[in-house]
Amino acid sequence: MIKTSASLVCNQKGDIRLRGYLLQYRALGIWVAKAAEEYSGPGASATVVTAEWKCSVGDNQLYRGRVTTRQLKNSNGTWFASGPVEGPEQRLTCRA
pTM value? Predict the structure, then answer.
């Protein structure tokens, strides 16, 4: 099992959306999402999301985590987003 987690502490009013992804490298700069987890709710809290994926035994690939956030700032429903933040690449081998 491969897991990645992201946390956010928000002290602003309004709703937030926090998404965490587990990405696997394919080739030619292409990263594919293998798992995702999302939290959506009130902002004034500490929030953690954990994306996990069951890999095949012997799988030896590059992985990294990615997180994106959005915050609802006003009453007309406008979401303000941050760009994706990507973690370091790690080569992982799955074992039984």
Answer: 0.79
- From the CB of residue 19, how many other CB atoms can be counted at a distance below 10 Å? 18
Q: Which residues pair with 12 in a beta bridge?
A: none
Give the pLDDT of the chain (96 residues) as one tens digit per residue. Answer: 888 888 887 777 777 888 999 999 998 989 999 999 998 887 667 788 899 988 888 888 899 999 988 877 666 777 777 778 888 999 988 886
Handedness of CA 31, 33, 34, 39 (dihedral sign): positive
d(CA 34, CA 24): 7
